[in-house]
């Protein structure tokens, strides 16, 4: 038996134990049976992001497509037979939606809209537009664990406040008479999976007749029933997204309690279909002589502007039937996901490092065995054996390599993040001032996480999904023994080496141009000549494209011809190579327009000159299947304004880096790949080529990881020096084979086990060129002899870095020079190698 089957068998036993709590839970076998056929998109993938969207089944798509193929559906606003057919379907679907939630159509209506957010906005606009004769403005109370889309309502309220559960309880339970307001909360938090009492709505109505409740049910309904059978205690408005229940169609709804609906009439705007009378007059109407009269029937009649998304509504009808055929009812789904969720929760909690330390902080006040207070969604951060945090971004990268799909970051829940990460308003603002933005890669700042990892289960999740996830946690995050590839294992045998390869990447993220052996190449403070001077930009977003998103870029091969001063670019798809002159002053550049692109390179905004000529953009667009063109970074002597701070070993330091990632030069030691490949070969993985590290200079160092101890490299021929700046942090871009553009998990997986320091994965060294002459340039060539000048370990300048904790090895982590990553800077209090 493999390790995995042992793990899965153990989890299966635990699951059976848990399922005793839930008599309807055990449909695992059923899902396993139909999953391959119904969800072929899941083949080989562990999908744990159902809280973002669950998945549609094959049979749903087949049913919708055959219906659309055989039936003629006209626009519902006409009166032709095809139009009436559409209207009839919409009417029927409306009732079916209400039945899904036990909502009596006599007392409830559903308004179709884009998504939950659009439903929330409809309510907000109506409240904000309450006519003056009944008093203007409204008070707003929102639960602290709310989605950003609920938080946004406060911009329209006269007075608003975020409440904890305790405060919300107190508010709904105390009497109040003369106010008018809206209270909103999630039925289930999109971040923590915590569930909040549906009874708040009824209690509020009883105690404060001037108040309304807006329930955000988007998180809950993914896996749970919502019961609106008691009209007197039901929320006034319920917002939800249908794609979160069925995976498809992309459609939302607002369920309105009809008795509370008149406030929605205050909405100012009217669109086609929502008025029963309208004139084209623009002076001020009076009450006696109106210019337009809103429809007065059910809320959907006066709230659905223009043509409803009728094909989607027809698809929704199929989605409801299909879902019930596959899963029975919501109660079953709820118990099934809850049992699996409990297993995730218990397994994470039970895991311990070799020293007994716990591996996880799960952010919830509740236990998943209480269905009413916790759903099958969990937010957490992982910890190492020394108690330090693992950045959620690194978890995301490794999970992606294992094809495990989860969500990380602030999760669109600012209150949840502030509460659980223990971030004060001041700390949030400080992070923002330091550059933190929603959705970026900064996971740890000033010693605290900026968000979390979230896993969430859905109707089609199985025990296997849970087992794959736990096995991933065991493989990478449970420390079992102390080990670290450290340099003292390999005492240096010599202090000289040779340059074995020189590469530049004229177009950022595209293939390397290897400098021919006989050719000396110019080197300057900003790096090697023509390295990353060009880039590709997406014509839609203006953003600089990278290989992570577009792996095929590896197949675009640039060639620099210094004789003819041209950059020629070839790729398999194009029959002819594209030629671009290197001399920027040539008149041929009449087609070069300056386009200010707020493109981002490692968080910096850059301005590039885009080539707008159609011939050029079409060449690249065809090659990649993406609308894009090439752009040039002005090769100004100052490197065009992007700098890296060099506090490390040079007092005066800003180094120009143009479009280069983080430093002017990247240098790797070919020998360091050997121990990595040795481990890979024992696991049967794909051996890696040194080209995946996309370095500029490859040397054959005396020993593996000798470069961790290098201070400077002196080139004998040109009498010039390269200064080392610190290790290079790696991401899963190194999994892209540079010859084929195919991805594999290696060498990232093995590297993460052997070369993780401070939670970051390192290989290679950043470097900069220092010229001993006044010209500020030099040249290097393959075969050049290199003298290694080592860091003086005895008098090691402690403020320049930290050492690997397992002994006095010299894996030096630069804790100050890494401008692109404050996380490295902040998290350096303790440096340790990962224990595996
Ligand atoms: C997903 C979600 C939303 C947002 O839904 P959209 O479809 O993006 O509008 C809001 N609240 C919760 C609780 C959610 O889970």
Feature tags:
seven-stranded mixed beta sheet; pyridoxal phosphate; alpha+beta; binds pyridoxal-5'-phosphate; globular; Aspartate Aminotransferase, domain 2; seven-stranded mixed β-barrel; PyrdxlP-dep_Trfase_major; 26% helix; molybdenum cofactor biosynthesis; Aspartate Aminotransferase, domain 1; 836 residues; pyridoxal phosphate binding
Give a written overview of the molecule.
Its EC number is 2.8.1.9. The modification N6-(pyridoxal phosphate)lysine is found at residue 244. It is an enzyme of class 2 (transferase). Residues 604-789 form the MOSC domain. Helix content is 26%, strand content 22%. The protein is an alpha+beta fold. It has three domains: 3-53 and 331-471, Aspartate Aminotransferase, domain 1 (Alpha-Beta Complex), CATH 3.90.1150.10; 71-323, Type I PLP-dependent aspartate aminotransferase-like (Major domain) (Aspartate Aminotransferase, domain 2, 3-Layer(aba) Sandwich), CATH 3.40.640; 496-835, no CATH class. It has a seven-stranded mixed sheet with strand order 2-8-7-6-5-3-4, with helices on both faces. Strands 18-32-31-36-34-33-38 form a seven-stranded mixed barrel. A four-stranded antiparallel sheet has the order 11-12-17-14, with helices on one face. A hairpin with a 2-residue loop joins strand 35 (756-757) and strand 36 (760-770). It is globular, with a radius of gyration of 31 Å. It starts with a helix and ends in a 10-residue tail after the last helix. Residues 587-591, 646-652 and 795-836 have low confidence and may be disordered. Pyridoxal-5'-phosphate binds next to helix 5. The site of pyridoxal-5'-phosphate has 14 residues, from helix 5.
């Amino acid at each position: 038996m493999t390790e995995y089957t042992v793990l899965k068998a153990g989890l299966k036993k635990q699951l059976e134990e848990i399922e005793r709590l839930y008599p309807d839970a055990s449909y695992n076998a059923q899902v396993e049976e139909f999953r391959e056929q119904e969800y072929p998109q899941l083949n080989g993938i562990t999908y744990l992001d159902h809280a973002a969207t669950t998945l549609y089944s094959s049979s749903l798509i087949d049913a919708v497509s055959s219906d659309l193929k055989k039936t003629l559906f006209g626009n519902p606003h006409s009166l032709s037979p095809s139009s009436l057919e559409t209207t009839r379907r919409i009417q029927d679907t409306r009732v079916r939606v209400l039945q899904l939630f036990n909502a009596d159509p006599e007392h409830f209506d559903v308004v179709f809209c884009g998504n939950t957010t659009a439903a929330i906005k409809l309510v907000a606009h109506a409240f904000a537009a309450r006519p003056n004769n009944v008093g203007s403005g409204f008070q707003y109370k929102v639960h602290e664990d709310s989605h950003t889309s609920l938080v946004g309502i406060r911009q329209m309220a006269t007075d608003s406040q975020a409440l904890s559960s305790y405060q919300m309880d107190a508010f709904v339970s105390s009497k109040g008479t003369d106010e008018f307001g809206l209270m909103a909360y999630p039925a289930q938090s999109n971040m923590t999976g915590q569930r909040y009492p549906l009874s708040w709505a009824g209690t509020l109505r009883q105690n404060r007749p001037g108040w309304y409740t807006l329930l955000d049910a988007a998180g809950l309904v993914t896996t749970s029933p919502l019961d609106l059978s008691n009209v007197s205690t039901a929320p006034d408005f319920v917002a939800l997204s249908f794609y979160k229940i069925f995976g498809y169609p992309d459609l939302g709804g607002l369920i309105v309690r009809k008795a509370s609906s008149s406030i929605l009439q205050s909405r100012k705007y009217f669109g086609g279909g929502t008025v029963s009378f309208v004139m084209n007059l623009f002076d001020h109407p009076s009450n006696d002589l109106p210019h337009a009269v809103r429809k007065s029937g059910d809320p959907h009649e006066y709230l659905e502007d223009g043509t409803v998304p009728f094909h989607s509504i027809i698809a929704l009808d199929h989605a409801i039937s299909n879902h019930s055929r596959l899963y029975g009812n919501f109660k079953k789904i709820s118990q099934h996901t809850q049992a699996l969720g409990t297993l995730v929760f218990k397994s994470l909690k039970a895991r311990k490092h070799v020293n007994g330390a716990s591996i996880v902080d799960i952010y919830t006040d509740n236990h998943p065995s209480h269905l009413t207070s916790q759903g099958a969604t969990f937010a957490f951060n992982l910890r190492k054996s020394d108690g330090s945090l693992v950045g959620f971004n690194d978890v995301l990268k490794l999970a992606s390599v294992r094809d495990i799909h989860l969500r990380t970051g602030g999760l669109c829940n600012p209150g949840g993040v502030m509460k659980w990460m223990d971030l004060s308003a001041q700390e949030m603002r400080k992070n923002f001032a330091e550059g933190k933005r929603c959705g970026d890669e900064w996971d740890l700042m000033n010693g605290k996480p900026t968000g979390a990892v979230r896993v969430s289960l859905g109707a089609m999740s199985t025990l296997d999904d849970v087992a794959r996830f736990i096995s991933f946690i065991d493989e990478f995050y449970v420390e079992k023994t102390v080990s670290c590839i450290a340099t003292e294992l390999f005492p240096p045998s010599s202090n000289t080496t040779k340059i074995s390869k020189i590469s530049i990447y004229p177009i950022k993220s595209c293939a390397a141009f290897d400098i021919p052996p006989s050719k000396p190449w110019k080197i300057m403070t900003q790096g090697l000549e023509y390295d990353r001077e060009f880039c590709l930009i997406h014509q839609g977003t203006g953003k600089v494209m990278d290989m992570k998103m577009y792996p095929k870029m590896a197949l675009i091969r640039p060639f620099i011809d210094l004789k003819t001063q041209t950059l020629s670019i070839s790729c398999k798809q194009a029959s002819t190579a594209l030629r671009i002159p290197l001399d920027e002053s040539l008149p041929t550049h009449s087609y070069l327009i300056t386009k200010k692109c707020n493109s981002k390179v490692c968080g910096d905004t850059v301005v590039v000159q885009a080539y707008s000529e159609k011939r050029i953009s079409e060449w690249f667009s065809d090659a990649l299947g993406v609308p894009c063109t090439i752009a040039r970074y002005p090769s100004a002597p100052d490197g065009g304004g992007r700098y890296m701070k060099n506090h490390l070993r040079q007092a005066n330091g800003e180094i120009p880096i143009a479009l280069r990632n983080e430093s002017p030069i990247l240098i790797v030691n070919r020998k360091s790949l050997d121990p990595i490949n040795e481990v890979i070969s024992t696991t049967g993985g794909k051996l890696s080529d040194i080209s995946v590290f996309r370095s500029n200079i490859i040397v054959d160092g005396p020993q593996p990881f000798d470069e961790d101890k290098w201070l400077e490299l002196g080139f004998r021929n040109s009498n010039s020096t390269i200064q080392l700046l610190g290790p290079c942090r790696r991401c899963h871009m190194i999994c892209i084979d540079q010859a084929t553009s195919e991805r594999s998990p290696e060498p990232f997986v093995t590297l993460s086990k052997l070369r993780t320091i401070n939670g970051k994965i390192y290989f290679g060294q950043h470097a900069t060129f220092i010229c001993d002459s006044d010209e500020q340039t030099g040249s290097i060539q393959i075969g050049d002899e290199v003298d290694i000048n080592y860091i003086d370990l005895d008098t090691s300048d402690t403020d320049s870095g930290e050492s690997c904790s397992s002994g006095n090895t010299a894996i030096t982590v630069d804790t100050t020079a890494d401008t692109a990553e404050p996380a490295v800077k902040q998290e350096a209090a303790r440096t340790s190698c990962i224990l595996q």
